[in-house]
Amino acid sequence: MSNSNITQEVVERIKSTLGDLVKGIEEHKGFVTVYVDPENLVKAASLLKSMGFDHVKSVTVVDRIKEKVFHVGYHVSSFSDPELAKVVVELATIISREDDAKVPSLTGVWTSAEFQEREAYEFFGIIFEGHPDLRPILLAPDVAEKRPLRKDFVVKEEGIYRE
Amino acid sequence: MPGSQKAKGRVYVGNVDVAAKRAREILMKKAKVGKLVDWATAFSLWPVHLTTSCCGCEFAATWSPRFDAERYGALPWVGARQTNMILIEGTVTRKMACALRVTWEQMPYPKFAIAMGACALDGGIFYNSYNIVRPWEVIPVDVFIPGCPPRPEAVARAILELQRIIREKDLVGSWIAEGKRPDKPIVKPKEDPCAWWRG
Ligand code: SF4
After folding, report:
1. Measured between alpha carbons, how far is residue B80 from residues A22, A103, B85, B145 in Å?
2. Residue A143: which of B123, B131, B197 has the nearest Cβ?
3. pLDDT mean over B163-175
4. Residue B153's CB: how many other CB atoms inside 10 A?
């Protein structure tokens, strides 16, 4: 069975499992993006987990500053199901771009999201509600307060050459 | 090498005969004991294992059999208390600056520092970053090695250079006698690198 057939099949399975929670679905060469509303995130996540997606590969945030939104995405895949292991599914949600943007934490569903949510928190300032231990993980706290990966953060220019 | 043996501050790499002769000369001529201490310290520069960044790979290669920096008497050691040299391997982030300063303060004097890589010189590829510090703002650095990353030969060269500095400037003897380093002021970081941790 070719790769796109597997992807198609997974798309169909996700559509039938999540039902009308799905706001939109995109697929491209083994990568599937499922958009859901922020308030449905935890429910959609536990449904995906019951399908066999058992771990989070990465938690990522895209700062779309012109549209004034954050795109928060959880890349999930499977270790236990060899068929599902061939695809990576992104469970994505779009939230409005505010200083303290909030999104429900998925730590309760996938434990492996814990550290990565902390990382998204320190770099983008997204507050994951229900996270057990939301502290900066890589950056020193004073740097994390500046939310360095937001598009409106300006680094101090040093110039390449100095006197 | 014979003929130029009397050149001041010369490093006699791996030549036990010459080194022994030199030690005998120092003792026979009743030179200052400090001279002997300088001579001995130059051949036992033990760097502490503190790998701050990717230059650490070249640091490892320097001590691997092919380049074998142990023949200069330098041996990486684990505990800061048993070492007298620190080799900063590349980028120092805000958090690592604290570890660097704490390690430096734990080391007994006389102690020396080599900074390795473009990142340690002036930021390297991270020159405009919000999260790095310059290591020379945290501890006093004796020798800089340019390169990204520097070759193991360059690291070996820096060790030899440090040996030369120690012997030419009589650093260790007078440092022990006077309790402070004769040639350089004490570097104190402008802001406490561990402030984020102390709270
Ligand atoms: S100088 Fe180059 S190799 Fe060394 S730490 Fe910086 S980026 Fe890495």
Report:
1. 56, 44, 9, 22
2. B131
3. 85
4. 11
CB contact at 8 A, B139 and B104: yes
Angle, alpha carbons B167-B147-B14 (nearest 5°): 35
Judge whether A37 lies within some domain: yes
B158 touches B114 (CB < 8 A): yes
Output the pLDDT for position B1. Answer: 42
B5 inside domain: no
Residue A13 located in a structural domain: yes
Residue B2 in this model has a pLDDT that exceeds 50: no
Residue A132 lies in a domain: yes
Q: What is the ipTM of this complex?
A: 0.76
> From the list B128, B195, B197, which residue is nearest A158 (CB)?
B128
What's the CATH code of the domain at A55? 3.30.460.80
Residue B157 lies in a domain: yes
Please tell me the total count of domains within chain A. Answer: 1
CB contact under 8 A, A158 and B95: no
In a domain, A163, yes or no: no
Contact between B139 and B169 under an 8 Å Cβ cutoff? The reply is no
In degrees and rounded to multiples of 5, residue A150 shows phi and psi of -70, 150
Domain count, chain B: 1
pLDDT of residue B21: 80
Arithmetic mean of pLDDT over chain A? 88
pLDDT tens digit string along A92-133? 999 998 888 899 999 999 999 999 999 999 999 899 999 998
List pocket residues of ligand 1, CB cut-off 6 Å.
B 53-55, 90-91, 117-119, 124-125, 148-149
Residue B94 contacts A, CB cutoff 8 Å: yes
Domain that holds residue B114: 18-198
Domain residues for the domain of A124 are: 3-144
User: Is the pTM higher than 0.95?
Assistant: no
- pLDDT beyond 60 at B56: yes
